[in-house]
Amino acid sequence: MKVESNWEAAPLRYAGVATLLRRPLVNDPSGVDIALIGVPYDGATENRPGPRHGPREIRNMSSFTRSVHHVTRMNPYKLCNIADLGDVNFSNPFELQQCFTDITAFYRKICAAGAVPLSVGGDHSISLPVLRAVAAERPVGMVHFDAHTDTSDHEFGHKFTHGTPFRRAMEEGLLDPKRTIQIGIRGAQNSEESWQASEDAGIRVMFMEEFTSLGIEATLDEVRAVVGQGPTYVSFDIDSLDPAFAPGTGTPEIGGLTTIQAQALIRGLAGLNLIGGDVVEVSPPFDPTGNTALVGATMLYEIVCILADAVAREKNSQKNV
Ligand code: MN
Ligand code: MN
To answer: 294: CA distance to ligand 1 center in Å?
Structure first.
């Protein structure tokens, strides 16, 4: 299907039914280049919950997003068909494994239709069942923004939590640790296990202090050196940001990225071979001003811009073959 722009149809941003980035809501992924998908699941959260409400509130705050980027002057919606595919529906929201199965099944259909998925969580555990679909045919690299590595072996004996998705993804051959970089890592842990696990696996772990001394451009050079031109996933945990900018999240850690740093870092990923991404851990119940969801919607827009660029380049290269 051709996804029509809804900007002309609904010029009043505060009116109408809220959708992700104000894109048309569709059921069928055929003809969609980039599928925006809500994953309202937070059953694998260890501390403060709430990101199950993330997709709905990011749809609401998407009312503030517009189309033409102020730095690049690009309009992602002119480059690609981008639609809101709605939320993953859970057959039993109390059963974690069933929820993961439902997520993977949903994304298999998206991938089979040739659409690139960009997800809104949900807690960070959702990245694992998403990668089971996105990386089914080969392991992918990843640019991961987070205060935490999320590579613990378990939390309280449980193997599937929002602190473990990338440990499982490596074990399942979905994630290539040698092509993965984690940026913004910080905050005391009760042991070094989660940091050590990433480093032992060969992930490039960039703690916040190193990022601060390197700066944005040198960090982006490092990102490009690590992930190269292989297929690369972008995972953006909102707690990578300082809680001054994004307080509404389950595991806040002070001393984080500013919003303008994160925007510049995401923008700097243009040119990579991007095959999907997510924005996770926005928790509206802990976000009394709504600012965290606004930040989440805006980061979603930044990611959609670089994804649209990547998808358009891929389409053009196929045309020229
Ligand atoms: Mn995380
Ligand atoms: Mn985190």
So the answer is: 19
C-alpha of 188 from chain center: 24
> How many structural domains is the chain composed of?
1
Distance 80 CA to ligand 2 centre (A): 31
pTM of this structure:
0.97
Q: From ligand 1's centre to the CA of 272, what distance in Å?
A: 22
> Cα–Cα distance between 205 and 247 in angstroms, integer?
24
Q: Is residue 1 part of a domain?
A: no
Please indicate, yes or no, if residue 124 is contained in any of the structural domains: yes
Phi-psi region of 209 (alpha: psi -120 to 50; beta: other; left: phi over 0): alpha
Phi, psi for residue 308 in degrees, rounded to 5: -65, -40
**Ligand 2 midpoint to CA 168 (Å):** 16
Domain that holds residue 182: 6-319
Residue 146 within any structural domain of the chain: yes
Q: Which ligand is nearest to the CA of 241?
A: 2
Q: Per-block average pLDDT, block size 10, for the chain (321 residues)?
A: 55 91 97 98 97 98 97 97 98 97 98 98 98 98 98 97 98 98 98 98 98 98 98 98 98 98 98 98 97 98 98 90 68
Which CATH number is 139's domain given?
3.40.800.10
